[in-house]
Amino acid sequence: MKRKRCEMEETTKKKKMTEIGSAIEELSVLSIAKTTIVTTETEATTNIINLPLKPLLSFCRLIVQVLDKIGPTMAVLRQDIDQNIQRLEKMWESDPLLYSNLVEILRQEAKEGSSRKPKSCSRAALWLTRAMDFTLALLQRLVKDMSQNMEQAIEESYNLTIKPWHGWISSAAFKVALKLVPNNSTFINVLAGKDETHQMVQDDITSLISLLIPLLNQLHSILELYEVSKLKSP
């Protein structure tokens, strides 16, 4: 009963926070939980970091909530994120102790030769990383100029981070969906919490960016080590 009450209080607390605030909190937890692991000579030379899987997936869910604020334009990307989260969770559920961190999952698939398969967890991790790349690029554009055109900011972020890996059908669908993007003021307002000013939102975004950059650097290093960083849509 006590545990259930604590979980309810934690849920209530998160509901009161903005999506950006919750993302900052989750990334802070992930940063504390990371540890350096070395099991092979290659990993020793690349300083591989153990990334706990559950906090990482919790953060990805918060990314979905942020992207939801953009509206239907993000529907395809949102669905992709959800499916990749589920794939990694299913792997974790098969052996929570063994697959408690992302590196072990990628290492196991590399050993089995299944990393490049269409439904591999390595691909799931890759596409979650690309979704975070997109989110980072968009937030960096917003924090640089909070009044810039949202459609342009989203298109430029997409072209930089995801379009090179998408097939032409997905790219065409995204182009059409861009017409449904909200204006800048509307997007900032829905990101803001009660009584939050645009300056406060900007400060929160800056904090999130500072935490997201090192995480993405680590993720890209891991993906490159296991030779899955350049895979395109199957």
TrEMBL record:
It comes from the Eukaryota. SUPFAM superfamilies: Glycolipid transfer protein, GLTP (SSF110004). Residues 52-192 form the Glycolipid transfer protein domain. This is Glycolipid transfer protein 3 isoform X3. It comes from Camelina sativa (False flax). The lineage of its organism: Eukaryota, Viridiplantae, Streptophyta, Embryophyta, Tracheophyta.
